[in-house]
Amino acid sequence: MGSDPFNLFSEYMDLPGLHKKTFLKFAHGFYAKFEEVKKQIFSRAVSVVRAEHAREKGIELMENTVLDICVSYDGTWLKRGHTSQIGIGCVIDVLTGLVLEAELLSTYCHTCETTGTWVKGNTPQRYNASYDEHRADCCINYVGTSGNMEVVAAELLWARSVDNHRLRYTSMLSNGDAKAFVKVQQLDIYPVTRGVLKSYF
Ligand SMILES: [Zn+2]
C-alpha cells in the first residue's frame, strides 16, 4: 500500500493521515523488519525440508550435506496484462509443500519516481549525488519486461540454492511455457540437472 491509499483509508476511518515522507520512513522501517522475518521463516522451512529429505533418503544429515530435491516453481505478478512493475518467483518443495524461497523483482521505486524525477528536472547537477545517497534503499532490482521476471527470478534462485541452503533443485515442476525451466537448464548451475514438466489445467 502506498501513501495515497493509506491516507484515503485513514480518511474513511476518520483517522489522521501521514505526510508522504513520514509514511515512507515508517514503510522502510517496516520493510527492514519484514526482511528479517522473511529470512527466519525461509530458514526454518529449509531446515524442515532438509531433515525430511534426509529422512526419506535414509542418510545422516550433516551441515554441509547437499541434497537434491524436486521443487515446484512458478511466477506471478502484482497485476495482469504483462505490464506489471512487480513480479515474484517462488520455489516450493514438492515433498513437504513448504515454500523454500522467493525472489521479488521490481522495476518501480517510489523515491526514484517522485524525488528522483523532481531532482532530475529541477536540479539535474545534483541528481548523481542524490541517487548515490539513495542507491542502497532503491527498490529497483530489475530492468526488462514483466514477462521475463519469472525467468530471471528462477536464475537467481537456482544460482544460490547450494550456497544458501545446501539444496539442489534438480527437478522442477512448472506450468506455462517453461521458459524458466529452459533457462535453468541452459545455465547448467548444477553438474546434473533434470526436469519434469507438468501442466496444470
Ligand atoms: Zn529508487
Question: What features would you describe in this structure?
Answer:
The chain has 201 residues and is an alpha+beta fold. The chain has one domain (3-107, 142-187). Helices cover 47% and strands 17% of the residues. The protein contains 6 helices and 4 strands. The protein has helices spanning 3-12, 20-57, 110-122, 127-134, 149-165, 179-187, and strands at residues 67-77, 86-93, 99-106, 167-173. A 4-stranded mixed beta sheet has the order 3-2-1-4. A hairpin with a 5-residue loop joins strand 2 and strand 3 (99-106). Helix 3 runs antiparallel to helix 4 (127-134) and helix 5 packs across helix 6. The radius of gyration is 21 Å and the shape is elongated. Bound molecules: zinc ion (ZN). The site of zinc ion has 7 residues, from helix 3.
Task: Summarize the helices and strands and which ones pair or pack.
Elements: H1 3-12, H2 20-57, E1 67-77, E2 86-93, E3 99-106, H3 110-122, H4 127-134, H5 149-165, E4 167-173, H6 179-187
Parallel strand pairs: 1-4
Antiparallel strand pairs: 1-2, 2-3
Helix pairs in contact: 3-4, 5-6
